[in-house]
Amino acid sequence: MLKSALGYAQIEKKTETLSDADVMAMIQREAKKRRDSIDEFEKAGRTEMAANEKAELEVLTEYLPKALSSEELESLIREVITEVGATSKKDMGAVMKVAQSKVDGRADGMARRPRGAAVGGARRCAGGRPRRGGAEGHKPPAHLASP
Predict the structure, then answer these.
(1) pLDDT at position 46
(2) Is 34 helix (H, G, I), strand (E, B) or coil?
(3) Looking only at Cα atoms, what is the longest distance across the chain?
(4) pLDDT value of position 24
């Protein structure tokens, strides 16, 4: 599973070895694929396939850094807001850029939370309020909605 994905990445990058960052990104990508597959198999009632994916996910997560808790993430975001000197929502791009570099893959658990949890945390820390529903609650404009 992972070995073949790493092999394909080496071929794609035309290199003999991958950097640690490339390997970590590949492990995270493969873990995300497993999480998505687990959700789909469970929705379809394929418990045996979901169990296989869960077993593979357990192996992959052993190689990933420990994910930050929501409290640790919020604390980190507050530190970044202070560091950047953010005072309004306009500064959120700068806050997210610095926060993402400090998180360095340790907030991968966001994939299992409702979409926008990290951004919502940044909005709360910046004094704004998080949007409700994330992408699922978003409705397209009437002229783009399908009939």
Answers:
(1) 94
(2) helix
(3) 52
(4) 86
Residues with pLDDT less than 70, the chain: 108-147
CATH number, span 70-132: 1.10.10
In this structure, how many other beta carbons lie within 10 angstroms of the beta carbon of residue 121? 22
How far is it, in rounded angstroms, from Cα 130 to Cα 135?
A: 12
Contact 122, 99 (CB under 8 A): yes
What's the pLDDT at 109?
45
Q: Is 45 helix (H, G, I), strand (E, B) or coil?
A: coil
**What residue type is 109 in one-letter code?**
G
Q: How far apart are CA 15 and CA 7, in angstroms?
A: 10
What number of residues does the chain have? 147
Q: Give residue limits of the domains in the chain.
A: 2-61, 70-132
- State whether the Cα torsion 127-133-136-137 is positive or negative: negative
What is the identity of the amino acid at 141? P
